[in-house]
Every structure is written in C-alpha cells, then in structure tokens.
Amino acid sequence: MTRFTPMAATTPVAASPTVAPARSTTPRFVSALLNWRPALFLARLALSSAYLLGGVVKLSDWQGAIAEQAHFGMIPPAFWAALTIAVELVGPILILTGRLVWLGAGMLGVFTLFAAFTANAFWTMQGQERFMATNAFFEHIGLIGGFIALAMLANRRQADA
C-alpha cells in the first residue's frame, strides 16, 4: 500500500536567499514537554484510564455491570456487560503497551460512539437532563477525536521507524 504524499512535498523547489526557513511558533518549554520521553505514555494513560478503570470496576461487580447494561436497554445484558468489560480492558492495554495502538484506539472509539448514542440520546430529552446529556454526548465525540489522533500518531511513528 502506498502512502499519500501531498504534491508540494514531492515537488523540488529552488532555495531562495530571501525566504527564511520556517520557524516553530511553539514556545521552547512546550516543545520540551512534548518531546519529553514519558509525555506520550502519560497522554495515552490519560486518554484511556477511565476505560481501564471502568473495566476493572465492572469486572469486580459483575451484577452491577449487568444492571448497567439493562438500564440502557441492552439485551441480553450479560452479553453486553462481558463485551464492555473486554473492550474497556483490552483497548487500554493495547494503547498503553504501544502494540496495535490502532486497534485499541479503534475499539475504544467505536465503543465510545456507541455509548454516546445509547447513553446520551439528548434529542429525546428535555430541560436539564437534555443539557447534561448534550454535553456528555459531545464530550464523547471529543474522546473519539483523541482516539483517531492517537491512531494517526502511532501510524506515523511506525512509518517513520
């Protein structure tokens, strides 16, 4: 499979003495933080920790996990509880170990999209409940964007290796 390369990147351009090389607008301290070796792991942990914790909590309270799925109308609830636990444990483990990051991020992204529509159907609600569900829905969409960005970064790092 070939990698898409924008045309501008492949077209040779003669160096011009009047054009200065592009300079980063990122402050040095921010650049240093972003290049700090543990930063990527900490970002992965921050993005996936709620899912990992959720999986552990559900695993330790199986009846509660089943009740949660029943509350959201998921039938059969035991199947959905088991699937949720598997996704919430395996996805973060893949992300945190740096192995098959695309798969872990994809699992959690799809799960989060499904959860957003299932648990935060704000279009069916009124008043304060609607307000809170709308916020939660779009927070879930933001998390999905984070998982996409993480998968893109992992793909780029793998291609550059």
Notes on the structure:
- By secondary structure, this protein is an all-alpha fold.
- The chain has one domain (47-160).
- 74% of the residues lie in helices and 0% in strands.
- It has helices spanning 7-10, 28-35, 38-60, 62-71, 77-97, 101-119, 127-160.
- Helix 3 runs antiparallel to helix 5.
| Major beta-sheet overview | none
How far the N terminus sits from the C terminus, by CA atoms, comes to 17 Å
Can you give the mean pLDDT? 90
Structural class: mainly alpha
Radius of gyration: 21 Å
Low-confidence stretches: 4-12
Instruction: Based on Cα principal axes, name the global outline.
Output: globular
Total number of helices:
7
Reading the helices and strands in chain order gives HHHHHHH
The total number of structural domains is 1
Strand content: under 5%
Number of strands: 0
Helix coverage percent of residues?
A: over 70%
Question: What's this model, at a glance?
Answer:
The chain has 161 residues and is mainly α. It has helices at 7-10, 28-35, 38-60, 62-71, 77-97, 101-119, 127-160. The chain has one domain (47-160).
